[in-house]
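hey so u asked for the seq, here:
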Amino acid sequence: MTTFVGISRREASMKLSIVFVCGLFFVQGLFAQEVAPPAASDEAAAIQQVIEDQWAAFAGGDGEKALSLAAPEIKDRFDSAQAFLDMVEGGYPVVFHHFTYRFMETRIGNHRSWQFIRMVDLNGEVWFVLYQLFRQDSGGWLIGGVYTLPGAPTPGVEPTSPRV
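ran it, structure tokens below
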């Protein structure tokens, strides 16, 4: 099979598709009318806390807690908290179990926000992860989607906290 920069044509096409989809979400989030300038530190901290709370729930096997931090549109897709845990573990292993992470840019809108994260999985592979969160009527944030993209190491960027 023909290769491009050491990867197969199929793998290159798949990676390009993932980049394109993430790019669409990024552009949609950055240029939608509801998006404000870069986040104030209190809002960013609240968003990051929701994400870290869900990671802690994953690590502790607490499906109820993990699912409680998902937006209603996500909750409605699962018959049980265990089904949600199984989906995340199987489909988003870097989110379920990771070694390190670093919060990057946070973009906050009136009703929707984006958190960009650089993560390293348990195999040492680098991932770029985009969380989409929705503001609830209570003013809090719930996770509405997660998009992952394999990446390359970024020179000079060190993770902020180890996670196992």
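The chain has a mean pLDDT of 81. The beta strands are 3-4, 7-8, 35-38, 98-109, 112-121, 126-135, 141-151, 161-162.
lmk if thats what u needed
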